[in-house]
TrEMBL record:
Its EC number is 2.6.1.64, 2.6.1.7, 4.4.1.13. Pathway: Amino-acid degradation; L-kynurenine degradation; kynurenate from L-kynurenine: step 1/2. Homodimer. This is Kynurenine--oxoglutarate transaminase 1. It is found in: Cytoplasm, Cytosol. Pfam families: Aminotran_1_2.
Length: 438
């Protein structure tokens, strides 16, 4: 009898491979690893990109009002492709900025964060054998999402040029080589992913740079997936130019946005995709066959946030005016802290990220020749474990073949309370003193 049980048990155990082929090679995720390290060791977490300050009061109050409404309707499903008040105000708001009338029901779709909007784009547009151009360094999920859709990511790097006489490097010093970019477009190219302002560098693409990309998209009949989640976070009077507003681009662009970044509420996971119906209809197909519907009360609160901002657009009380002002100051503090200890900052023109050069710290964390792990990754792990300061290695934002080009750089997030940035400064100062003492 026991033998019978044993053989039945062995038969019941699955032995066939369970993993779908599309998951091969994409199972590791840098965020899972580094978020865990930061949770375990960090006293100051400047790693993952989220504010440690609250969203504005008007937004929190809108959420509380939404939950407390008598009719309970906001606790139930709403329209699958976006809560009507939210798609209406998004169409009105961005229609004004883009100088064209948007149909809220066909040209806007609400998603579970910008992440899901990106996922819908790649699933909707990319077939086996299609190529998608990705500008490097890039938000890491672009590569894996293209691969999961069966496509091939084709990388084109931003190339740094040394700044003039002793000045700090700026994210504007990182530029595309026009000939190199043009060489990546061919018959198989289905889309290009643009992320301006760019995570991780903070680069804000100029009108001229966007025109270069737009001309190539039109020439080769290529789509543009424009991730603009940091659109309000631009500094020093720089302008965020929407590529969809350039000649010939509306028809071939999906704009992606995030209430998480816009209103400092990353945990709400409200995002959107915007574009012509001929593109968005395919995103709706992916959405209705996967997520179908996003949290109603959060959408209602974000709608109210945008209604407020629509009325205050460009005025000093607007959150979209105040937030970048505050963040610019935080950026400047972190630039100073890092510069003072010799961790050379690349001054970002936008986003809430700052990339710094760790080359001067090699004596603290010696390189291991022929190691499989990029130096920046080992450095970031050492720093969080030994100094309590969390940051993200830049090799997480590039393809496998190019990791050595970025392994002297790490990314900090400065969307943090003054006290957090001061604590980071103290860690850096102490570290510098220890380095200087014999
Ligand atoms: N795009 C970029 C460039 C991002 O940095 C992020 C978040 N880190 C996202 C998209 C995802 O945004 P969300 O939290 O709204 O899904």
């Amino acid at each position: 009898l026991p033998t019978l049980f044993l053989s039945l048990f062995l038969q019941a155990k699955m032995s066939r491979p369970v993993q779908a082929r599309r998951l091969e090679g994409i199972d590791k995720n840098i965020w899972v690893e580094f978020v865990k390290l930061a949770d375990t060791y960090s006293t100051v977490n400047l790693g993952q990109g989220f504010p440690d300050f609250p969203p504005p009061d008007f937004l929190k109050q809108a959420f509380v009002r939404a939950l407390g409404r008598e009719d309970h309707a906001l606790h139930q499903y709403t329209r699958a492709f976006g809560h009507p008040p939210l798609v209406k105000i998004l169409a009105q708001f961005f229609g004004k900025l883009l100088g064209r009338e948007l149909d809220p029901m066909t040209d806007v779709m609400v998603t579970v964060g910008a992440y899901q909007a990106l996922f819908c784009c790649f699933q909707a547009f990319v077939d086996e054998g299609d190529e998608v151009i990705v500008i490097e360094p890039f938000f890491d999920c672009y590569e894996t999402m293209v691969k999961m859709a069966g496509g091939t990511p084709v990388f084109v790097p931003l190339r740094p040029k040394a700044p003039n006489d002793g000045k700090l490097m700026s994210s504007a010093d990182w530029q595309l080589d026009p000939a190199e970019l043009a060489s990546k477009f061919n018959k198989r190219t289905k889309a290009i992913v643009l992320n301006s302002p760019n995570n991780p560098l903070g680069k804000v693409f100029s009108r001229g740079e966007l025109q270069l990309i737009a001309d190539l998209c039109v020439k080769h009949d290529v789509l543009c997936i424009s991730d603009e989640v940091y659109e309000w976070l631009v500094y020093d009077g720089k302008e965020h130019v929407r590529i969809a507003s350039l000649q010939g681009m509306w028809d071939r662009t999906v704009i992606i946005g995030s209430a998480g970044k816009t209103f400092s509420a990353t945990g709400w996971k409200v995002g959107w995709a915007m574009g012509p119906n001929r593109l968005l209809q395919h995103l709706r197909t992916v959405h209705q066959n996967s997520v179908y519907h996003c949290a109603t009360a959060a959408q209602e609160a974000v709608a109210q946030g945008f209604q407020r901002e629509f009325a205050l657009y460009g005025k000093p009380d607007s959150y979209f005016v105040q937030l970048p002002k505050e963040l610019q100051q935080k950026r400047d503090w972190l630039v100073q802290s890092l510069d003072a200890v010799g961790m050379k900052p690349i001054v970002p023109e936008g986003t809430y990220f700052l990339v710094a050069d760790i080359s001067a710290f090699k004596s603290d964390v010696p390189d291991v020749p022929n190691s499989n792990e990029p130096y920046d990754s080992r450095f970031a792990k050492w720093m969080v474990k030994n100094k309590g300061l969390a940051a993200i290695p830049l090799s997480a934002f590039c393809c496998e073949a190019h990791k050595s080009n970025y392994n002297h750089l790490i990314r900090f997030c400065f969307a943090k309370e003054e006290a957090t940035l001061k604590a980071a400064n103290e860690i850096l100062q102490k570290w510098k003193q220890e380095k200087n003492s014999p």
